[in-house]
Design a protein that fits this description.
This is Variable surface protein VspE. The chain is mainly beta. It is 8% helix and 48% strand. Strands 1, 2, 3, 4, 5, 6, 7, 8, 9 and 10 form a 10-stranded antiparallel beta sheet that branches. The longest helix is centred in the first third of the chain and has 15 residues, at 2-16.
Length: 197
């Protein structure tokens, strides 16, 4: 009977928990301040959001390996190829504010570029107004293909206002800015000419 009650309790806890606890390097942070305590564990992500009525935090990993979806690669290289995220926020009656940070590690041996993403989130008007401003920054001195001084910037900001009207559930404004720049290097080949005497 004890095992049965424990199993039923576990099923109800898992069924009642929300599963949106992992935030990537985009405007999914829009929902960080309204989510309750939760744990998310899947093959491609693991993370949690915890807090009381005023202060909350989040930490987790989300795989960025495409179709296979594993966090650790195992064939030939044992790299962590995931977005690691963490954040802290304050929620009150009138407003909520939070900051987060994502670090996306890409296979450095393959010449890929890592990304750093600080995030600012803000809620107001009983969580009807939600703002998320992530700023992804990438930089690398040499891309190993004749291109140097790479700099990338991406800002997929979003503002949502939930109206409470069935016909127009929410009004969304998205601001997307991106920049990629690099210098095209010249390959210089030196040849030694051996002169025989």
């Amino acid at each position: 009977m004890k095992k049965f009650l424990l199993t039923v309790t576990a099923v109800f806890v898992l069924a009642a928990s929300s599963v949106f606890g992992m935030y990537g390097a985009d405007n999914t942070w829009l929902f960080f301040l309204i989510h309750g305590n939760q744990l998310r564990a899947r093959m491609n992500q693991v993370g949690f959001t915890l807090g009381n009525g005023t202060v909350k935090g989040t930490f987790g990993f989300k795989a960025n390996t495409g179709l296979t979806g594993q966090i650790f690669t195992t064939k030939g290289n044992k790299n962590l190829e995931a977005t690691v995220s963490g954040g802290i926020g304050y929620t009150g009656d009138g407003f909520g504010v939070g900051v987060g940070y994502n670090y996306t590690y890409n296979n450095a041996a393959g010449g890929n570029v890592d990304a750093h993403t600080p995030v600012f989130v803000f809620n107001a008007v009983n969580n009807n107004l939600r703002v998320a401003v992530p700023v992804s920054i990438s930089s690398k001195a040499d891309l190993n293909n004749g291109k140097t001084d790479y700099f990338g910037l991406s800002i997929p900001a979003q503002i949502r206002y939930y109206t409470g009207i069935d016909a127009f559930n929410y009004i969304r404004f998205e601001f997307n800015y991106g920049q990629n720049s690099y210098k095209e290097g010249q390959l210089i080949t030196l040849q030694k000419i051996l002169a025989s005497n």
